[in-house]
Design brief:
Number of strands: 15
Structural class: alpha+beta
Shape: elongated
Strand content: over 45%
Length: 253
């Protein structure tokens, strides 16, 4: 009798697994949305293809930002406990991304990430006198952990290179060469971009700090020996100390 009951239960489990495996990928959307933190419930999903195990989303958008060709190697069972967990791949013209992703109501965690994007994607954030950026950003992210409720970064550890970096200012174009940087955080949960090496024209050193309230604090220094026209522009923004020009700039995104 026990064997019969166990056989029936096993058959039911197998049947349920088959039904899940055969379900269209769009079936996963309600569970996926329910696993997202309240702060990003406005995330919109386009057409979903593939399977429930490996959904492919043609478009994901949030406010005025959107990404195409988003593929997820999902652990569907994690959704039944209110968690989104799996590997994510983005092959959008604006961003190439590969990482592990874990999302629930309490935190967003990204690990083992690699990324590649054009610096011009940050142009809408530029403030006078910088008009735009050019070059390619690529690198890796060991981990990024965010608490959505208060937008505090719990952990950030990454690095990258801004290749053939260019800044457009006023009507000029300034080539910076390659610029290596690290991504870290502090006790306040701010994101920090620290310049590690720049052998270009300016020999840039310094960092950019972004707070959870979207305030930014920029501290840079350049070498003193500069082309005359560039030096005149730098002098408007910087102070000369210890044979280097120091620039401090802050504002809100």
């Amino acid at each position: 009798m026990k064997k019969i009951i166990l056989g029936i239960l096993l058959g039911i489990v197998v049947l349920l697994l088959m039904l899940v495996a055969m379900a269209p990928a769009s079936t996963i959307l309600p569970m996926l949305k329910s696993a997202l933190p309240q702060q990003v419930k406005a995330l919109q999903f386009g057409q979903v293809d593939g399977s429930i195990w490996s959904p492919s989303i043609n478009n994901v958008s949030y406010q005025n930002f959107s990404l195409k060709k988003v593929d997820i190697e999902l652990n569907p069972l994690s959704l039944f406990i209110g968690k989104l967990k799996g590997d994510i791949s983005i092959q959008d013209p604006k961003l190439h991304w590969q990482s592990q992703l874990s999302v629930d109501q309490k935190q967003v965690a990204v690990k083992a990430a690699s990324y590649q994007l054009q610096a011009s994607q940050f142009d809408p954030l530029m403030k006078f006198p910088v008009k735009g950026l050019a070059g390619e950003l690529s690198g890796s992210l060991k981990q990024f952990i965010l608490t959505p409720q208060n937008k505090t970064i719990q952990a950030l550890d990454g690095e990258g290179t801004w290749q053939n970096a260019v800044i457009y200012y006023l009507e000029q174009r300034l080539a910076l060469g390659d610029l290596n940087y690290q991504l870290t955080t502090n006790e306040q949960g701010d994101a920090i971009v620290q310049i590690m090496e720049n052998r270009g024209l300016l020999d840039l050193k310094g960092n950019l700090r972004l707070s959870q309230s979207k305030e930014y604090f920029l501290e840079l220094s350049t070498q003193q020996t500069l082309p005359a026209e560039l030096e005149q522009w730098i002098k408007r923004l910087a102070q000369l100390q210890n044979n280097r020009y120091h620039i401090k700039w802050n504002g809100r995104l």
